[in-house]
Amino acid sequence: MIRLARRNLHYLAGGxxxxxxxxxxxxxxxxxxVPLADRIFTNKPIVLPSGLPPMLIDLAGRFNAIDxxxxxxxxxxxxxxxxxxxxxxxxxxxxxxxxxxxxxxADVRGDIFRKYQELSLDxxxxxxxxxxxxxxxxxxGFIGHAMSYGLTDLIYQSLQAVMFAVIAFTISWKTVLxxxxxxxxxxxxxxxxxKTIKKQSLQSQESMxxxxxxxxEANQGVAIVKAFSREEHEIRxxxxxxxxxxxxxxxxxxxxxxxxxxxTVLMAVSIAVVFWLAGRNVMEGRMSFGVFALFLTSLLSIYxxxxxxxxxxxxxxxxxxxxxxxxxxxxxxxxxxxVPDAVVCALPKKAVRFDKVSFRYNKNEERWTIRDFxxxxxxxxxxxxxxxxxxxxxxIMNMILRFYDPDEGRFLFDGLDNKGVPVLS
Length: 425
Prior knowledge:
Layout: H1 9-31, H2 33-41, H3 54-65, H4 68-118, H5 121-126, H6 129-171, H7 173-179, H8 183-220, H9 222-227, H10 231-277, H11 279-283, H12 289-301, H13 303-330, E1 351-359, E2 370-378, H14 393-400, E3 408-413, E4 416-417
Antiparallel strand pairs: 1-2, 1-3, 3-4
Helix pairs in contact: 1-4, 1-6, 2-4, 2-12, 4-6, 6-7, 6-8, 6-12, 6-13, 7-10, 8-10, 8-13, 10-13
């Protein structure tokens, strides 16, 4: 997704900066739990665990020295003020990230459509119209969704998780390290499920392309369908494609929703460990209740960003499948290209000549559409091409228009090889 957002890096940088400021302001408000619980509600001094940085110990001493009522009114005014400023930055981060998402999707749709115009006719003979429409609508739209929510949450929720982890680690790093032992298990499960999600998401998107193709063919050929009373046949085709898409989507969805319950169970075990290790410090007076409340709340608050990051992982796996389909198109090389020394020429005045031309649409098949065809078409003279369906009449006309180049032999304009002439001339 970063590759798609590279044209809008200034908006992305602005969004990330706003997320950092918003997270920092949220952390300040979060830290108000300690003076609220210890100094205001219980009227007891703030007691920090041993081994903390001198700056934090000095800050706790300053809070202990402030009058209880003064601290109470100060928090009443300061916390809402911080919340207002945080709200402004939250709005800006959402605005910037949505600009990145929508502009990136518009850019990639423009790139895909431009590529469609550049590609040779051989590309269209291998792809269905419904599939091409699905790439520029469904796949690009899915990437837009992933960037609007997935990329935003990937960055913002990561910052949130880091903030809560730093707070908890600062208060009791030994307890946090013990809890972190469960994360490799969680990460392994997420990786296993994530690979399945990406594979099944690709199948789901291929099913959507099939569905679009059936719909496009039925609508474009509606007159033929009605002329031959094939309505029921087309309905069955659509229902079969629709059911395949439903089944593929549900497979991906089932794997995706497995991740959150797994994390919830592991985190519940972690919280039990917190009560066992850190709760004794409060009971023995080595940590005040407010500090313990901040520590416990920090660990509990990690739930939300981690669960969102897990959901983002699933969204990103689906977006990777869409991105792969889009870049398959963007990386496709057109068969008809200009040679470096191409020369612009005037319209032919004498003849166009096929010199032992051979051509086939599918390069992996042995059957040739045209084989060793030679003929001079004189300018100003009417020539009729007659033969059964599939003998190459339309192919010859397409080669004159240079929709295709010969696989073997040459096609000449007044003796000049057409491969030496620019495509647009």
